[in-house]
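Hello,

Our lab assistant flagged a job as stuck in the queue for most of the afternoon. It eventually completed. Since we weren't sure the result was trustworthy after the delay, we are filing this so someone can double-check. Below is the sequence as submitted and the structure that was eventually returned. Let us know if re-running is recommended.
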Amino acid sequence: MSNTKQVYIQVNAENIASNGTASYSGGNPIVRFSLGEREMHLIPSSIRLSGQIACFYNSAQAGSLSASNLNISNKLGAMGVVEQIQIASQRTKQTIEHITHVDRLYSSLETIRSSEQDYCSPFNNERLVVPNKFLQEKVVSNPTTKNTPSTFCIPLICGFTAGSDLCPLSAVNGVGGIEITLSLASNSSFFYNSSLTPSTDMDSAFYELSNLQIFAEGIISSDGSPLPVINELDYISINSYYETINSTNATINMPLAKSRVLGVFANFMPSSYINNRDFDGTQCRPPLNSDGTVAKISQLTFTKGGVRLPLQYNISTIHRDQNTDSCDAQILYNYINGITSFVNLNRTNINNLNTNCVNGATDKLVRELGNLYGIGVSFTNISRDGIDFMNESFGVQIDLDLTSDNPNSVFLFAVNRQTITFNSQNGIMVSN
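-- returned structure --
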């Protein structure tokens, strides 16, 4: 495209309160941005959310945050403010992608695909991420009575922004502009108490966002000639699902309703820990009993329509016949493979410390990024284009030592191919 040039896009949030802020506690937890119809090919991977965040101890915007053990996830930093992402055509309002439990998704993706050195890079510093929970406290705390806002710039990680293809914004041969809607995380899920002692001192703490903008890059014609026609956009989408388990033999069946599923992965959290400031809700823990001990998984079976697939065998782990605190390598291998190709993984934060099965409720003592546990499986060994779950459900049977009445939430994510086709007569069509 020699007759084209790259340009930068900058748009402000549309529905900000009169004081210029957005916050969950302020009654405006939805933030919307519009990249309108124009003769431009958007580069989705370039989309960034920029702004400022201030954290306050109470509604009077007073109190020393540095003395309260108030903290935010050092996996996510400012990315923890996003709970849902929805991307839709501005013209037709048709949903292109909608992801819930975004903080849980990011906790898996970023730690699997990044090294500890990556977390120390300037790129992650822009996200307000520090790979040490004690240093992370300094990001949200300020010894004065009113917190000074910190500037951040974060990627909006989803399938639509993960690909390398261009998205035409044209109203004639394109998506007709896009609308990005962000649902903000609650204060109780964004903050947590980094000490080992439960406390109510921070129950009133809240955050405020200001100067919110979307930055992106696009391709336009440099001489007025028409841009090359793009008929379709193929991308990897991510869909989220939620379930609970509370027995030694837990069975999960999910109607994924997708025709090109590449992989599935899941992480766990005791249900009582969710929106509980005494616990970091972004941790990827193994299942836990009520006393905080790990409910070790002895066997996993993945199914499609009740039939074992893609593995024709049960994963019998080292915990089935021996009492060890080590995490089973088969579980970790398949978990990573469900997210990204294991053989192409050249960096990760997963190690023998943060996957150790002795790390349960006391995970605040685990080094650096805390627990990085999960389960999953890839279907790409059957077909590189994914397999069809439109009419059959995905299932996983989990045998584990969940011996007490302690429901554990399961956050499950399906990675699938989607295609947007563009037609000047019929508009756009999303095929999953």
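-- support follow-up --
The delay was a queue issue, not a problem with the job. The result is valid. The mean pLDDT is 87. The longest strand covers residues 41-56.
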